[in-house]
Design goal:
There is one protein chain. It is built from 15 helices and 11 strands. The chain has 3 domains: 68 residues, 3-Layer(aba) Sandwich (Glutaredoxin), CATH 3.40.30; 119 residues, Glutathione S-transferase Yfyf (Class Pi), Chain A, domain 2; 157 residues, 2-Layer Sandwich (Alpha-Beta Plaits), CATH 3.30.70.1010. The chain is globular, with a radius of gyration of 27 Å. It is an alpha+beta fold and 414 residues long. 42% of the residues lie in helices and 15% in strands.
Length: 414
């Protein structure tokens, strides 16, 4: 008989419960949020677990410890005595309640996932220094967090460090906290976690905040001024002196400029999309005149951390911030992204037309581009066309894991 269903996603707190099921080969079914989930977990928290006879659990530590006990109540992952078990809970709780939320408090505003607030970021970084100092002190004297063998605490706490290394912890940080860095490399590469946790490469410096570009205001025409007395022309510089002045440095070119001008200019499509009926005129025009798979590629773009989203208007603002930071690539792509679902249960998806066959040169101009997942689409397939059409029109529900979700809002990148 099945031991139950684990509701888990790509959210950070889902990784260890999934790893436990895989490690112990437990007969536990994985599931995304479905009707049964929503009827049993009104707080909409992930991970969640339903066992036999309606037994329900939320909170990652409770679920993880329950699963380990199901597999092996004497597992060394839980320590060898009461003192070690208590220490495992201590380090895991500290990471879950303090480290992970504080990292999010810092990196989310820096990457446009939350409103920018310098005071909040400075306070968060100061507290992270204290927290990391506590972990550094422990790990400078011990190989692992609890004694000299890997325990649940190591696996869980390492996953809470992933977002830190992804966005915040550069070379200077790693030099300041060498023991944490050494320990993290060891644990995150373990067989227990390697197939579950996405790879994160160490960064040189923390991600930097890039404010959205402000629109330039048109200057009012200057009032006619009285004719002024002519100034004497400045004496002309000798030709040799003129030649000696350095020329202005040319502006760096966008990497996609090397592909040259496409046969179908993107501006014409943007004009049609803006001025014609979307379903009746614009979309047929797109497939007949704009989309050429030799010059352009289609990409499905999904936000990776839907479980961290709250209100739909805030999710839409997040998309707006992402689009602002993509402005350097306006000439090379067009796309729409929508927010589907409702408050505290929504997600972000969309479709983009991109010059060339690689998404990265177009998207990596935005510092938060790695918060999104990119899937190449084959425009010759009917289901792909249906998805792209809906992303451009926003007039039908989005299908997510077999469930139809209404579109709450969206934005166009053009």
């Amino acid at each position: 008989m099945s031991l139950g269903t684990l509701y888990a996603t790509q959210q950070t707190r889902s990784w260890v419960p999934k790893a436990i099921v895989k490690h112990f080969n437990l007969d536990v079914k994985f599931s995304d949020k479905d009707e049964k989930y929503h009827s049993n977990f009104p707080l909409n928290k992930i991970p969640a677990f339903i066992g036999p006879k309606g037994f329900k659990l939320t909170e990652v530590l409770a679920i993880s410890l329950y699963l380990i006990n199901l597999a092996d109540p004497k597992s060394k992952l839980l320590g060898k005595n009461a003192a070690e078990y208590a220490s495992i809970l201590k380090w895991s709780s500290l990471a879950n309640m303090e480290l992970l939320p504080t990292e999010a408090k810092v990196f989310r505003p820096l990457t446009g996932q939350a409103p920018y607030n310098k005071k909040q970021i400075d306070e968060g970084n100061a507290y992270l220094d204290k927290l990391n100092g506590v972990f550094e002190e422990r790990l400078s004297n011990f190989t692992y967090l609890v004694g000299e063998r890997l325990t649940f605490a190591d696996y869980f706490v390492a996953t809470t460090y992933v977002r830190g290394f992804e966005f915040l912890y550069g070379k200077e940080w790693r030099a300041k906290f060498p023991s944490v860095t050494r320990w993290y490399k060891t644990v995150i590469e373990s067989d227990f976690l390697k197939s579950i946790v996405p790879e994160v490469k160490f960064r040189d410096a923390p991600v930097e905040y890039q404010p959205p570009k402000k629109e330039k205001k048109e200057k009012a025409p200057a009032a006619a001024a009285a004719p002024a007395a002519k100034k004497e022309a400045a004496p002309k510089k000798p030709a040799a002196e003129e030649d000696a002045e350095p020329a202005a440095a040319p502006k760096p070119k966008h990497p996609l400029e090397a592909l040259g001008k496409p046969k179908a200019p993107l501006d014409e499509w943007k004009r049609v999309y803006s001025n014609e009926e979307t379903r009746e005129t614009a979309i047929p025009w797109f497939w007949n005149n704009q989309y050429d798979p030799e010059e352009w590629s289609l990409w499905k773009v999904d936000y990776k951390y839907n479980d961290e989203l709250t209100l739909t208007f805030m999710s839409n603002n997040l998309v707006g911030g992402f689009f602002n930071r993509l402005s350097a690539s306006t000439k090379y792509m067009f796309g729409c992204m929508v927010v589907y679902g409702e408050n505290n249960n929504n997600g972000i998806t969309g479709a983009f037309l991109v010059r060339g066959q690689d998404y990265k040169p177009a998207f990596d101009v935005a510092p938060d581009w790695e918060s999104y997942e990119f899937t190449k689409l084959d425009g010759s397939k009917d289901d792909v066309k249906k998805f792209v059409d809906n992303m451009f029109a926003w007039d039908e529900p989005v299908e997510v894991n077999g469930e139809k979700r209404e579109i709450a809002d969206g934005k166009v990148f053009k």
